[in-house]
């Protein structure tokens, strides 16, 4: 890998400039106005794969945004790695909280600041550049395929059917993903578990129109008040989710398993300081790392209704709305949870309002056993470049499509992410440390080397 590492060192400025060109494309999948940008971004990545040395690369249609597929074959007897990443990014609101333009990347304090810098353009682009370095150096030891999608941030609604249609083309020995974070720069880790997700939207409707709050206040149910009380009742004073049947399939970890989590380096004081909070909160009886890694959670992701503009408007709104997500653990069926949520939410609504409940998207939890040869290869690769053996880590995040890959393609995934908790993904001022970007590019070739040796 010496030639590959030399190539990386000599082309760092080139890699960074190319990443910036990718980050400038506002590929927001959740906003229809950016549909042309999704096509533009896909074409940009196709060209990047061809330039990096792919035998072929193409933009392939789906029922939604396109998938970029590329491949390079070196030997029919060599293993095949399928690289997955996504090129869509989260919306940028609230825009006034950004310190620089979200789609004009900037380098400050040793970090790249831009929407998608970490999630997932920066991390996905590491794979293209590592691949380029190996191809150009003549040190690529295995076959490599790329599957880059444009809908991960909205639940990958089109990718499952696309994978089903192209199962033969996507055959591989392992899927390699960089869309997760490490515990810290000094505590490298590999994500061996992801929580599942069920995402819902609810509407509460009261009167047939907005009403004068003086003439009707106290006599007609206010949908915002009702919705707030309904949401508050979804969890109790112990942080326990109150939906009947919600915990039926949640496995309680053994004392030994919980002690292993306790052994992971974690400073609650640093955690609170980084978030500017005085106290943490959550389900009683569990630590912060347990709450985010091995326990389910319910959160309101957005709530709106009535007058929210400048000045005052004294109304009782006709409707109120909320988006609610539930993070799930292994054995919880995300579709079943959606049904339980709807049944319970309707049951707690007073007769003074009407309720609408919609399932938006979701996916199952995922576990990547540390006994997998690919996990061991990833561990060796990180140890080679970081100088420390990485810890296995259960992430609180979700990548719903990962469990779908296993179901449809029959292939396990290795989650070798290089982000940090401070990267502010999904928030204003998303960033990605330059050191992590380049260290990722340096590490990935060693994964190919060690995995091919297996």
Keywords, please?
single chain, 454 residues, alpha+beta, 35% helix
Describe the structure.
The chain is of the alpha+beta class. Helix content is 35%, strand content 21%. The protein has 14 helices and 18 strands. The protein is globular. The two termini are 17 Å apart.
What's the topology here?
Blueprint: H1 2-10, H2 12-23, H3 35-52, E1 56-60, E2 67-72, E3 80-86, E4 106-108, E5 111-113, H4 121-137, E6 143-149, H5 159-165, E7 174-177, E8 189-194, E9 196-205, E10 211-212, H6 213-216, H7 223-232, H8 255-262, H9 268-275, H10 288-293, E11 297-305, E12 315-316, E13 319-328, H11 334-347, E14 354-363, E15 366-367, H12 373-386, E16 391-395, H13 400-409, E17 413-415, E18 431-433, H14 434-453
Parallel strand pairs: 3-6, 3-7, 7-17, 8-16
Antiparallel strand pairs: 1-2, 2-6, 4-5, 5-18, 8-15, 9-13, 9-14, 10-12, 11-13
What is the makeup of the main sheet? 6 strands, mixed
> Got a strand count?
18
Strand order of the largest sheet: 1-2-6-3-7-17
Which structural class is indicated by helix and strand composition? alpha+beta
> Percentage of helical residues?
25-40%
Task: State the helix count.
Answer: 14
- Proportion of residues in β-strands: 15-25%
| Assembly annotation | single chain
The average pLDDT value, as a whole number, equals 96
Q: Compute the gyration radius: what is it?
A: 23 Å
Form type: globular
Distance between the termini: 17 Å
Low-confidence stretches: none
């Amino acid at each position: 890998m010496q030639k590959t590492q030399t190539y990386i060192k000599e082309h760092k400025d080139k890699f960074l400039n190319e990443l910036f060109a990718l980050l400038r494309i506002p590929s927001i999948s959740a906003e229809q106005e950016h549909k042309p940008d999704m096509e533009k971004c896909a074409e940009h990545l196709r060209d990047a794969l061809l330039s990096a040395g792919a035998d072929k690369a193409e933009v392939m249609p789906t029922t939604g945004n396109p998938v970029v597929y590329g491949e390079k074959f070196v030997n029919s007897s060599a293993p095949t790695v399928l690289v997955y990443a996504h090129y869509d990014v989260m919306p940028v609101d609230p825009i006034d909280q950004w310190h620089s333009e979200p789609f004009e990347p900037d380098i400050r304090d040793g970090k790249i600041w831009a929407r998608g810098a970490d999630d997932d353009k920066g991390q996905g682009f590491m794979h293209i550049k590592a691949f380029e370095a190996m191809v150009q150096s003549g040190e690529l030891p295995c076959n490599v395929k790329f599957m880059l999608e444009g809908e991960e941030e909205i639940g990958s609604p089109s990718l499952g059917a696309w994978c089903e249609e192209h199962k033969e083309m996507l055959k591989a020995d392992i899927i390699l993903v960089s869309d997760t974070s490490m515990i810290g720069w000094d505590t490298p880790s590999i994500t061996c578990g992801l929580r599942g997700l069920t995402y819902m939207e609810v509407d509460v409707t009261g009167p047939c129109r907005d009403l004068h709050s003086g003439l009707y206040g106290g006599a007609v149910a206010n949908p915002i008040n009702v919705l707030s009380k309904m949401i508050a009742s979804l969890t109790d004073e112990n942080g326990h989710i109150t939906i009947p049947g919600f915990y039926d399939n949640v496995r309680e970890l053994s004392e030994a398993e919980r002690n292993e989590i306790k052994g992971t380096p974690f400073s609650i004081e640093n955690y609170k300081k980084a978030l500017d909070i005085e106290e943490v909160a959550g389900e009683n009886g569990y630590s912060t790392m347990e709450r985010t890694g091995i326990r389910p959670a319910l959160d309101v992701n957005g709530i709106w209704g009535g007058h929210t503009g400048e000045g005052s408007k004294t109304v009782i709104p006709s409707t109120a709305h909320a988006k609610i997500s539930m993070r799930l653990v292994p054995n919880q069926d995300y579709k079943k949870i959606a049904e339980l949520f709807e049944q319970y939410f309707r049951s707690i609504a007073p007769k003074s309002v009407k309720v609408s409940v919609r399932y938006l998207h979701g996916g199952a939890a995922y576990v990547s056993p540390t006994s997998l040869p690919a996990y061991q290869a990833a561990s060796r690769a990180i140890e080679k470049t970081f100088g420390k053996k990485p810890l296995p880590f259960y992430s609180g995040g979700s990548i719903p499509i990962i469990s779908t890959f296993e179901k449809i393609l029959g292939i396990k995934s290795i989650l070798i992410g290089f982000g940090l908790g401070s990267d502010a993904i999904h928030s204003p001022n998303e960033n990605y440390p330059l050191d992590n970007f380049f260290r990722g590019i340096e590490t990935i070739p060693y994964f190919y080397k060690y995995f091919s040796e297996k």
